[in-house]
Task: structure prediction
Amino acid sequence: MALLTSQARISIVFPFFLMVSLVEIGAELYHHEAIINTVKPLLLPLLACCYLLKTSSINKGYLVALLFNWLANIAFTVPAANFLFFATLCFIIHRCILVFEIWKFEFSRGIRLKPVLMGSAPFLILFLSVIHLVYTDVLEYELYMLIAQALVMALLGGIAFGTYFLIHDNASKFLFMSALCFALNLFVLGVKLYYLNIDYLKPISMIFFLLGHVFLCKYMVLMSEILINKSIVKDIYYKK
Result:
């Protein structure tokens, strides 16, 4: 029997990812820990499969970043202080790798530091407002972790903001939507954990988390297509 084509496989894997995502959101809403611990570890590996099936050129940094986010997700399910520290650290590493890969690509497209810093300001204000709400209720090392997350996420948001307004192609749109969803995910989750313990905030934060990853995956696929097209154009130019 002939092997399934890449398009056929993505038509199977992505709906399965959506189904698992809906189960996870429902489990978060109804506090079903057994289901959360079962399906949550499946989300990012399924997304990685979608990326591998869709991309023209594999970005290893993106896959490593997904690995660290996956480790963070698993560690967050363990109710112990040392696992919380490990999860937060993995999450920060995940974001740092993403910022490096995205900045490297967008710098090659003409984005420079000034628009990034300007674009970072609203994201930094958002995260610092959360820290202002919770800083009296967290331990000292947790506060430093929150500040580190705020700085990295503000930088990611600044790159996305600057790219969206200066280049404004499909890739920049997906990057901007991803950064916005990730920012809202952390904002809602921070309010839920440290300020307002309202049940429906956790599934809302999970929706933003999943949307952010889907948009980021689309951005990474478009990134590989842009890089391949630039390489082809460069080869044609030098051959002439």
Q: What stands out?
A: The mean pLDDT is 88. The first helix runs from residue 6 to 30.
